[in-house]
Amino acid sequence: MNRLFELFRNKYFVATAAFVVWMLFFDKNDMLSQYEYRYEVNKLQEEKDFYEEETAQVKKNLRELSTNLKSAEKFAREKYFMKKDNEDVFVIIKEAKKD
Questions:
Q1: What angle do CA 76, 85, 60 make, to 5 degrees?
Q2: Which of 48, 20, 23 is nearest to 34 (CA)?
Q3: Integer CA distances (angstroms), 15 to 9, 21, 27, 35, in order
Q4: Chain mean position to CA 40
Q5: CA atoms within 13 A on the CB side of 71
Q6: How far apart, in whole angstroms, are the C-alpha atoms of residue 99 and residue 92?
Q7: pTM of the entire predicted model
């Protein structure tokens, strides 16, 4: 018990303990903030990866559309429901099952 009391009276131990407590809980960059920042960085990284994949897909589609006329016609028919003058287009929308 006496040894523990001497340890708490040591000014270096008290200063170090106060510094550690301050850095863990009260500082602007405390542990909770660091956890939140890391979570946000991971979320933004996932978002960045998603948009990079989407950009690559759009570039691939654009390259294909600009080089192949048949694919441009197919794209226009599927995405924008375009048709030739002598055609009729029927759009079938599947309804979700109601439980």
A1: 10
A2: 23
A3: 10, 10, 16, 26
A4: 8
A5: 9
A6: 21
A7: 0.55
Whether the Cβ atoms of residue 48 and residue 42 lie closer than 8 Å to each other: no
Which ranges in the chain belong to alpha helices (H)?
Answer: 2-9, 11-21, 31-67, 69-80
Residue for token digits 């948009």? 51
pLDDT tens-digit profile, the chain (99 residues): 778 778 778 888 889 989 988 888 888 888 888 899 999 999 999 999 999 999 999 999 888 888 888 888 888 777 777 777 787 777 788 888 876
Q: How many residues does this entry show for the chain? A: 99
